[in-house]
Amino acid sequence: MSGGPSSAPSSRRQHAVEAFGNAASAIGPVTLGMSWFGLTRGEFSMLDAGQHVITEVVAASRRPVHASLWTWCISDYEQEPVSAWMANGLILTATLIIDRSAEQRSAPTIASWRSRFGMQSVKVIKNHAKICRVWNDEYHVLLRGSCNWNFNPRCEQMDITEGCPAFSLVARIEDELPILPPNCSNLEADTATSLGRAFEQSTLQMFRGVREWSIGPRTK
């Protein structure tokens, strides 16, 4: 498994904020056992929050981290910070869990990610979750919320916890996801996502032949 949770203190420090300004000022220090909830007006994205967490954890532990990102879509410019973190020695590996539709719409972007971080660094499924994991031997931080990786000026919510059971759950699911070939089939993505386990086959049958719902990549 890609890292287990650290021992959380019996009394977890909890923070809930109405977040204005940048991610660093809204989130503050990233500490062992922390639990933070924020509601923004779109002032920062999952990218900004992830960058703050990575910087904090590397500084506190004096060790680089691994990172994984679940998102519905991603663009070229959103890859650049990840490359910079790796070049600067902040992260060791970067895994992208991406919706199949993103690869269909933005094949060069996903191909570029594979080229930079390795074939094993992209896992294509049917995905709408927005999650980021940041971890090393000491810290196991999970970010999740409505925020996409990109800037999106809308109300968004986000939770950040360290050392929680949810981190282990996401890590286990990530490890179970297969590495699919580029431009995999719809059936391969369905199977990798285990969609058949979520519904009775009789329920799924009514959707056979129905075109996947899709909208512009920058509006969801």
Please supply descriptive tags for the structure shown above.
220 residues, alpha/beta, Endonuclease, Chain A, eight-stranded mixed beta sheet, 8 strands, 34% helix, disordered C terminus
What features would you describe in this structure?
The protein is built from 8 helices and 8 strands, in the order E-H-E-H-E-H-E-H-H-E-E-E-E-H-H-H. 34% of the residues lie in helices and 23% in strands. The chain has an 8-stranded mixed beta sheet, with helices on both faces. Helix 3 links the parallel strand 3 and strand 4 (91-99). The longest helix has 16 residues, at 46-61. It is of the alpha/beta class. The protein has a single domain, classed as Endonuclease, Chain A.
Question: What would a concise description of this structure say?
Answer:
By secondary structure, the chain is of the alpha/beta class.
How do the helices and strands line up, and which of them pair or pack?
Blueprint: E1 14-19, H1 23-27, E2 35-40, H2 46-61, E3 65-71, H3 76-87, E4 91-99, H4 100-105, H5 107-117, E5 122-125, E6 131-135, E7 140-145, E8 156-162, H6 165-176, H7 186-193, H8 201-205
Parallel strand pairs: 1-2, 3-4, 4-5
Antiparallel strand pairs: 2-8, 3-6, 6-7, 7-8
